[in-house]
Structures are given as structure tokens and as C-alpha cells.
């Protein structure tokens, strides 16, 4: 039978289109490891067990793809066994009947289902993490907030202060502060709560530092000012200014050691690295596009370009913190991190040719000299920097 050439071209295009769609679906499944994927078979059963926030999407939808990392981050914070909320999604290209029943007419459609209910409440706000988490909190209601609730205005309870929008700015305007930004429904926050209480209690007689917390579902303006993108976020603040973000292990011993390190830096080495960004010494420098050029212009700077939602970045974070501690006493080495998801840093990351996370570049006197592609364990990272220092010394 003769085959018309036009028929052949159409068939070829259909095949290419099918392969493209298949690759998008596969990509989505690889990246979204924490979000629950529901189908027509299990949807009605699962949403009766707990409250749900569901994204109805199509793999080829650009808006859905852009929302994907944020939705995954939301799932990571929420899909804990002891959490009262589940983050899920439904692929409407394979579950068309279910999506039709739920009145899905565009992608992505985000709906909140209270426990036991089968009809959802549609989310109509901006699709950023603070707006999504605030919507969840509103739907769950104040009765669900049983964790980390303290009276306001703040009154120290065993050394721990609960801050609000009315008290935060004045409280942190002077001195040293270690602050937990949290959401009451967040499983990771609930796990950290007793440890944070223990930390505050162990430092309650220390007049140099205060341990505090603030509920971001109740005081969004403060959390927005500090660009809080996930819960819990632990910030070291001095004289009203963010100095560092804690990324280490959340044990009492590690947290207390971090406080000692930050206070030790201020007391014993207040002049060290005075040429860096804000004049305050750091184990790790957190730079943005505004401070990057000045922050790396002298000596060696080992820079981690990262995204907070990136799994590989999260695994590297505590090691990177340890690397910063190793080089803390070396005035010729800066260990740096740059969050490429921040609006003020996106262009910088593009200019530095960052095409994946994490990307590790070594700079010397402001000039990029090498990219690190080796094993991400502490010894290998340390040796990489030392070898370049020795090479520099031999050249002199």
C-alpha cells in the first residue's frame, strides 16, 4: 500500500510530540519525590483521612513547571507523619475524569480539602511559598495551631521569647539574636520545638544573646522582610541585621556550639574579614548580587551557588558549614554561599554560568580560577582549597 508523504510527516510529528510529553512526565516524576501523587482510584479515599492541598496540573504546562519546585518545598515541610496537612497533586492528562469532577478548567488549579470533605476550596492568590502557607493556615483555622504558641507581648519562658510584628523590630534592633522563624503546622518545626526550648533554657542566664521565635503564619510582614522561604528558618541577627543563616544539624549540642562560635567571632576576632560585605566576620559569607563583587575581591573565595529546594544542596549544607569553620582563622580564604532563587541574585548566577545546583566555583582576587567537580565530602573540599593555596604560595 502506498504511503502519502504528507501522512508520513504528520505521523512523525505526532511521534515527536508524544516523546516530548513522555519526557516531561518522566522529568516531573524524577524531581517530585515528596509530593503525593493521587489518581481517580485513591483520591476520594485519601482526602478523607487528613486535610489536603492539591495541585491539579498538566506536565506540559509552563506555569505548572514553574510552580513545581515551590510545591515540592511545601510538601517537604508538610508531608510528615504527625502533620495534619498533606500536599498532593493530580495529573489531569491521565486523570481527566477526576479533574472534570473537581471542576478543573485550567492549569495549575490549587484546591484545599478539609478532612472528610470531597469538594475543595480554590486558591486564588500568588503562588509563592509565604502566600501558600498562609492560605493553608487560614483553612486549617487557629484551632489547629497547638505547637509553639506563647502569649504576646513577649515574655521570656525559660529564656525563650515569642516575638510579634509589634515587638520584633525593637527587640532585635541591638545585640545578638538567634531567631527561629516557623509555622505551627510544620512537622520539622514541631520536631525542633523541644530542642529550641532546651537551647533557650541553657542560655537563659546569658545576657549577650537572646533566643527567640516568631510565627510566620501570624506575622507575615516580618518574615517577608527577612525573605523566609521555608520552615523552620534559623537566623543569626545582630543589631537588627541578618548576619547568617544556620544550616547545620538541629541538635542541642550543634545549636549551642553555633551560638558560641558566633559570639566568639564577635568577641575575639571582630576585625577579621572586615573588608567583607557588612564588616562582620562569618564562618560562611552569604552574598547577593549587591555584595558579591566586593565580597570576593581579596584572597581566595570558594563559592557555593545553590537553591534552597535542591536536595543535593541540602545534603551539602552541613558539610559546607564545617568547611567554613575550618577556614575561619585563615584571613586569605572565604567560604561563600549564594542563593540563586533570590530575585537579587538570579542575574548574578546567570552571569557566573551557573547551570545546576549546587555549583562550586573557586575565585582568586575576584577572578574565577576553577570549578570543583569532585566528591563533596569535607576532606576533599578542604584539600581542594589547600592545594590552590599551596600553588599560589609556590608561584610567589
TrEMBL record:
Residues making up the signal peptide according to the UniProt record: 1-28
CDD domains in the record: PDI_a_ERp46
GO molecular function (one): protein disulfide isomerase activity
The keyword Signal belongs to this UniProt entry's keyword annotation: yes
Recorded GO CC terms: endoplasmic reticulum
A single BP term in Gene Ontology: protein folding
Record's protein name: Thioredoxin domain-containing protein
Source organism of this protein record: Lasius platythorax
